[in-house]
Known about the structure:
By secondary structure, the protein is mostly beta strands. It contains no helices and 13 strands. It has strands spanning 12-26, 29-45, 53-65, 77-82, 87-94, 97-107, 109-115, 118-124, 128-136, 142-146, 150-154, 157-167, 169-174. Strands 1, 2, 3, 4, 5, 6, 7, 8, 9, 10, 11, 12 and 13 form a 13-stranded antiparallel beta sheet that branches. A hairpin with a 2-residue loop joins strand 11 and strand 12.
Amino acid sequence: xxxxDLPEPGAKSELRCRASGVEFTLRSKPVxxxxxGTCRLTAEPDPDSPDxxxxxxxxxxxxxxxxDPGGREDGGTVTLEQDADDADGVLRPxxxxxxxxxxxxxxxxxxxxxxxxxxVHAAARNAVGFSTARASAPSGxxxxxxxxxxxxxxxxxxxxxxxQIHSLVLHLxxx
Length: 175
């Protein structure tokens, strides 16, 4: 595959992000939410391979409304936001499709849950991995699937899991 098919180093893409039907447990209550938001991808040279490009993700921010059946701990919003702009992935050409690429992204996430009874700040216990084999160049848009469930914990009490994201498929579309 010609390197011309890959994004040029320095290329930037503003993307809309969405994740529908996300299975989420908050305070032991299962809920299904729809996230929307934005992020940016920047292409950088991959020092390990001339046939790859490293994508750096920045500004990932997703917001979802929580269902409101009327209880004191119901309703509000949950916001997932990238903790640092150091997330990245490697965009590799797929041998079976010249226009498609395989891409794995790893990000660190924080969360803010705002409900009528207060605000809770949480952080992902571990780095959050997304994987895809259907990213398109040069923008990196595509479908990124959560590799493992995500535990959101209290930063000052890591043994306390506030919420868990069971499944999340992140769709990145050109803005």
